[in-house]
Amino acid sequence: MNTGPLSENDRWIINYYRSSEIKGALFFGRIARIVRGPLQADVTHHFADEASHAHYWTQCLDDLGYTPDRQTQGYQDQYLEAAGLPASLMEVMAITMVFEKRVIRLYGQHLRSSPHPRVRQTIEQIMQDERWHVKYVREALDDMATRYGDDEVAKTIARYTAADEDVYARTVAEYGDRMTFRSHQLTERL
């Protein structure tokens, strides 16, 4: 387990996570302003979680003696190009389901690489919320299937899953050398 100073790549990925969490908070803040009905409380909670996650990453960097770097790109920035703008609340929930599952997989990979204990603590704290996000979104999509139909919900999730795979491949192509925890996973498999 790494207990020394963070490498440049480790600092970069934490800043990337932080930037993505900020973008998630801004996105869900906009959704929370317009959604009505039973989802309003969950979406507002999700918005607050994303803002908290950005704070957790900021605090993690601060605790380790670093200042957050400004990053203009986040993972979800590429979603609009790959999948288009969600046109309904069902599409918002579908893209959220796909994205949150990606986050859980990515954070899980990072945890398996034996990160610095403070980084591990932050990921584990965030993962509790991420699991709840998947749960409430799955329940919302199940409820929406009565309006849109099971097939339409499944097709929408499949479309966003394909877009996510494309975005992830492009992200790895562009930043894979920065994501050193991924190379640890590849070494483990060999």
Explained architecture:
It is a single chain. With 190 residues, this protein is an all-alpha fold. Helix 1 runs antiparallel to helix 2 (39-63) and helix 2 (39-63) runs antiparallel to helix 5. It has helices at residues 8-34, 39-63, 79-83, 89-112, 117-148, 150-175, 180-189. It contains seven helices and no strands.
Task: Characterize this entry briefly.
This protein has 190 residues and is an all-alpha fold.
Layout of strands and helices, then pairs:
Blueprint: H1 8-34, H2 39-63, H3 79-83, H4 89-112, H5 117-148, H6 150-175, H7 180-189
Helix pairs in contact: 1-2, 2-5, 4-5, 4-6, 4-7, 5-6
Sheet-strand content, in percent, reads under 5%
| Spans of at least 5 consecutive residues with low confidence | 184-190
The general outline is globular
Radius of gyration (CA) equals: 17 Å
Q: What separation lies between the terminal Cα atoms?
A: 20 Å
